[in-house]
Design goal:
The complex is a heterodimer.
Chain A lengths: L2 H16 L8 H8 L30 E3 L8 E3 L18 E16 L2 E15 L4 H12 L20 E7 L2 E6 L9 H19 L6 E5 L5 E2 L3 E2 L3 E2 L14 E5 L4 E3 L4 E8 L5 E8 L2 E9 L8 E9 L3 E10 L6 E11 L1
Parallel strand pairs in A: 6-7, 12-18
Antiparallel strand pairs in A: 1-2, 3-4, 5-6, 7-10, 8-9, 11-13, 13-16, 14-15, 14-17, 17-18
Chain B lengths: L3 E2 L6 H28 L2 H17 L1 H4 L2 H34 L13 H9 L3 H6 L4 H11 L5 H8 L3 H22 L1
Helix pairs in contact in B: 1-2, 1-4, 2-4, 4-8, 7-9, 8-9
Classes of the chains: A alpha+beta, B mainly alpha.
């Protein structure tokens, strides 16, 4: 056998061998890790790569849309909205734009009886101008966060900022100043508006990625209170880690993202965060609406410390699934927090 | 300090995002497959490459251009894949000593007899033989014939000299040829 023959066969053999696997998409997860703003996840495989120590939340950006500009008259057009009619249009991305996953927080229901709310995070692929500044990126993230409407078909998100836009965002090393077109929508409870203010604080800080820089609000129409309650004179910040349970939804499913497609034969591992009593969260797997499996998982920490959890679902038959994570009260057996994500095995 | 409208402290983070997005689109699949060829575990391969991208992003200020970043990614992937194998061997030795059981990964660094038979049956005997070479020879030949890297690029990825690359490639190919002739 000549060297050329050997080399050719080796090249072909390696190519065939490599093509035996289909790498799963992890772009959004990677972007979530590099934009980690909570640093909650324990280091994975510390022996493998030290940088993993900085890893945090696995992500889940689901709807993918394009934001045609940063202005208040933004036009959002879904590009890859996985499970819905939203997928009918393609994103408009100009040649000078690039897509990045921006963190956006939303106020959503965490339980229905009694009704409680918390912040959920989405990473939304958004078209922004190449070379945009951190301030521009933060403004784009706020624009996404303030329009929960495209998510409401799938998630229990509220729209306390409907009809409100970001007029301007300025950034110094010590202050983020957000100028809003109005003070916020009417008709929301005190808990909901408190979270709505935090929603903007968390989103701006996460998009900028330089820690808990205080946030100051200015209302363009001259209002001195947000939602008629929260004065604009002081600055706002996210709470310290031991108090973040007062703001964040108790359970997040960070992977799979909504509408994720798993290749048949691939093991499914769900990941997330929780702040639950003794770290205990129950899960239920439904296939085509019918519950097929359920069990309990334990997070790395119990509340008030937010922990991370994972559920190994193994190899699943082809079909449409819903993973429901929930916490049951030890006192009365009621469901006190829950969230779900749909995915497909095909 | 005066506020600067629409001005962030620096666009460094932004450039890193754009680079990550571009490099991911262009190289995610090939890097995962490269790692898979070295560790034979898709989950670990994906995690290895994922961590490499995160590391690349955090070092973007030192890398600054996509060529350097790609070289850095390859180096991370090869080094981390090697760490996976080293870790797995420690784990195997421990488990074998304790229970004579296979590792939790279920896939050992060396192909099983069944894998070898399958490879033989499907004409991929060379790939199976590649798995029996020394670690360094296997890495050199995989980078050369899977990614089609030059000697200089392989040297950079493995942090060895181009001369060593040439020597490992020569010895590796000689061993493969010998193995092939043994079967003919």
């Amino acid at each position: 056998m000549t060297t050329n023959d050997l080399e050719r066969r080796l090249r072909e053999g390696l190519r065939r061998e490599a093509e035996r696997i289909k790498p799963r998409e992890r772009r959004t997860e990677i972007l979530a890790m590099v934009h980690d703003d909570t640093q909650l996840i324990e280091p994975r495989r510390r022996w493998l790569i030290p940088i993993a120590a900085a890893a945090s939340v696995a992500l889940i950006g689901t709807l993918v849309w394009g934001v045609s500009n940063f202005g208040g008259s933004q036009q959002i057009t879904p590009a890859v909205a996985v499970p819905s009619a939203l997928s009918s249009a393609n994103a408009k991305v100009s040649g000078a734009s690039t897509q990045v996953a921006l963190p956006a927080y939303f106020v959503g229901a965490t339980s229905t009886a009694p009704a409680h709310y918390g912040l959920y995070r989405e990473f939304v692929l958004t078209a922004v101008a190449r070379g945009a500044t951190l301030a521009q990126k933060a403004r784009a993230a706020l624009t996404v966060a303030m329009n929960a409407q495209p998510f409401t078909k799938y998630e229990p998100y509220l729209q306390p900022w409907s009809a409100t836009t970001v007029k301007k965002l300025t950034l110094t090393p010590n202050l983020i100043t957000i100028t809003l077109s109005g003070p916020g929508a009417r008709g929301f409870t005190a808990e909901q508006t408190r979270l709505a203010v935090q929603e903007l604080v968390w989103t701006a800080q996460a998009a900028i990625g330089q820690g808990p820089i205080p946030v100051k609000f200015v209302v363009a129409n001259g209002s001195v209170k947000l939602f008629g309650t929260y004065p604009t004179a002081p600055t706002y910040n996210r709470p310290t880690k031991d108090l973040q349970y007062q703001v964040l939804a108790p359970i997040w499913i960070t992977f799979p993202e909504r509408g994720h497609l798993f290749a048949a034969g691939a093991p499914v591992v769900a990941k997330g965060e929780s702040c639950a009593f003794e770290g205990t969260t129950q899960w239920q797997l439904k296939k085509s609406g019918a519950a097929i499996r359920s069990a309990v998982t334990t997070a790395s920490s119990g509340c008030p410390t937010r922990g991370t959890w994972q559920v190994k679902l193994g190899v699943l038959a082809a079909g449409n699934y819903t993973l429901r994570m929930y916490e049951v009260s030890m006192q009365n057996g009621q469901t006190v927090a829950e969230t779900s994500k749909t995915f497909t095995v095909k | 300090m005066a506020e600067r409208e629409e001005a962030g402290p620096a666009p460094r983070q932004w450039a890193a995002d754009a680079a990550l997005t571009d490099l991911y689109g262009a190289h995610w699949h090939s890097l995962v497959r490269l790692s898979w060829l070295l560790v034979r575990d898709q989950q670990l391969a994906e995690e290895t490459v994922q961590d490499a991208f995160v590391a690349m992003h955090s070092r973007w200020s030192q890398l600054r251009n996509e060529d350097l970043a790609l070289a850095y990614l390859r180096r991370c992937v090869v080094n981390s894949s090697r760490s996976v194998l080293r870790h797995r061997k420690v784990e195997e030795r421990y488990l074998n000593a304790e229970t004579n059981a296979r590792t939790a990964h279920g896939i050992t660094a060396e192909p099983s007899a069944e894998t070898r038979a399958l490879a033989h049956a499907t004409g991929d005997r060379l790939v199976a033989a590649l798995g029996r070479l020394s670690r360094r020879q296997r890495e050199v030949l995989t980078l050369r014939y899977y990614l089609d890297l030059s000697e200089a690029q392989i040297a950079n990825a493995l942090s060895i000299s181009p001369g060593s690359v040439k020597a490992h490639a020569h010895r590796g190919l000689a061993a493969l040829r010998s193995d092939e002739e043994g079967h003919s």
